[in-house]
Design brief:
single chain, alpha+beta, Double Stranded RNA Binding Domain, three-stranded antiparallel beta sheet, 5 strands, 47% helix, globular
Amino acid sequence: MSNLRSARWLWPNQLHRIQTESLETLSTRYSLSVPAGDLLFLDGRWYVTHSGLLSLARRNHCSGVRVQIVREFCDPVTARWVFKATVYKSPRSRGFVGYGDADPSNVSSLVHGAEMRVAETRAVNRALRKAYGIGLCSVEELGWAPRSNSSGSPEQRSASSNGNNGHHNGQPRLRDRLCLLIRQYQLDAGLVKAYAADYCGTATLRDASRDLVETFINDLAERAAKDRPGLICQLNNYIKQQEVNS
């Protein structure tokens, strides 16, 4: 099964029987695809993504999604936003409702200033999950604990900032996100790592801080989505560099 092979490649030695059985169910019942980025495996659990839910809705000929801001619970001054989303599976559907909220305390520091969009996405995700009976939480609905640069010793803060391959305050592993991007856009993993090290200004990707790696991954995702041919062209520049090093 393509999904299982991809999952084992992305998360080696992490999938046990119960996780593989869950993946099989998700694959057959909802046609969710690991290579397409529909699912993520974090802390021993499967999570569906926003793109995966939209793909599911499209395959099932969803009639439409209506999104409304819930103004009485919003506070623009503190960047707190609440949205209500209603998914209509068919023209005669009464609708499946979901709410989503976001503020600086429960979103990543990288998307501060975009809390309104995060809240809208969370609302749509919850409504889609209800409409199509998805029991999994979506990645975008996960809360984000605020970072504290003042707690702990300088050594602990340094170690935390360099923990770029693990979870930090509940955030998904950066390695997983990078692997998904490479798989989704069919990029050369070796060239991406060379580009990442150059981008972060370090000898290897492991030497870069988590913040730098996270910024790189976000930039890579945006470039891959908007201009994959241009990104491929830039990555190919590192072929000669690898030949020289070898």
